[in-house]
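Bit of a strange request maybe. I'm writing a small parser for structure token strings and I need a real example to test against, not something I typed by hand. Could someone generate the tokens for this chain?
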Amino acid sequence: MIEAGNQELRDDIQWLVDREIIGYVSTSTWPVPVSALEAALEARKKTALTRADVHAILAVRRYLDDQKASSVGITAKVNTDSLPQLGFAEQSRAVAAGGVYLQGGGDNFAGKLQINGLLDPITRKQSRVNLEGSYASARFLGQAVYVGQLAHYWGPGVDGSLNWGNAATAIPGIGIQRAKHTAPESEWFSWIGPWGYEVFLGQLQHDTSVPKARVLNMRVFARPFKGLELGASRFIEWGGQGRDNGWGSLWNALKGNSNDPGNDPGNELAGFDLRYTIGLWGNPLTVYGQLAGEDEAGGLPSHYLAQAGLQFKHMAGPTRIQWYAEAADTTAKRIFGLSDGLIGTAYSHVTYKNGLYHDGMPIGHPIGGSGRMLSAGVTVIPDDFRYFSRYSLRVMQAQVNEANQAINQVFSKEARWYGAELAYSWRIRPATFRAGVALLRRTSGEVNNGFSLTLSMNIPLEKIR
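Reply from user aminoacidic:
Good idea to test on real output. This should exercise your parser:
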């Protein structure tokens, strides 16, 4: 299983899928089974490839070879000013963190044990020791089943997902997916196109309002025709200590019977997303969007949070250049000013008072509920076949926590700020490195200004034969 957090890998896969170099594999649903990515690579074009295409293929191929190798290794992350990170890249949730891991497996079984330690965590709810990144998986009857604590990311966004992102500590649990994102063989259902799904059952940690609260999360996605990916997700927080944990309560949550104040079975977030790519002068232009409903009306989500974005990829000689711009509004029903919105509703709940936060960090978009963010950036990937280096720059402007909700421990008070991040990543095979600088400056409200040096590394120490 490939968990969320490797921005370089996601960029490479999107380049290849959007340019129709490889078969379809979703870049909006993580973790991804290794078998799904391998199947996409097997269906790749063999001719008329540019040097940039070959560079991306080789980068993905080398990642898969390293991922499948049995090895022991260490990881380390430094975030000197403890600034909260945003986006798909692996998150630093402390001033410093380190880990050791053991991984191995074959075509049908695989696993990884990773033990991490945190120094000065960003939120007070986090454990100083965790097992994030650990899992055991098996493949059978075309399905991939795993149990562990892997980072998820459901949605097409670059800097966050409204429904389920990787800003918070990963939720431990068990999941099942299709092992390959292929089209149905039946002529009756072939119109669906390549598709996949995930069902995940887990349990939140360190929840003080409803201890041992569970989650039942579901997602389905498909590409009905070239360039268009559609997805639907549902996140259900349910049960827990002192709550009804029976099948009847679960069935009511599944049916959406969640508007009875005296008998509310759970806390839900559900919605839809799309990602559509067209060719512009031979280069991929992608538009994407996501809606996540904080309430239910007529059996469908309502009081939506919204996200929209644009990506453009092109070449300058053999160098890949990838641009994006994105907007997110995490205030329920506001949708970028179409309505006044409902301040204090998003990611909160009258019974599950810790809301959709895990260890005090947002399970959905990394700024949390009742906010908005604009961001833009560019990634430059030279045809460096030795170190596979790349450079990225992004700028952000945000208004966070307009409701002053203490459950958001990352941004615990209303504030407006702007930020920037410059990063450089490279690899000295099989080790990978990412270094950068991050800036956050307050324009109003209560948030600390910061300037942080960041560094992360993954170093396999020895391959096990």
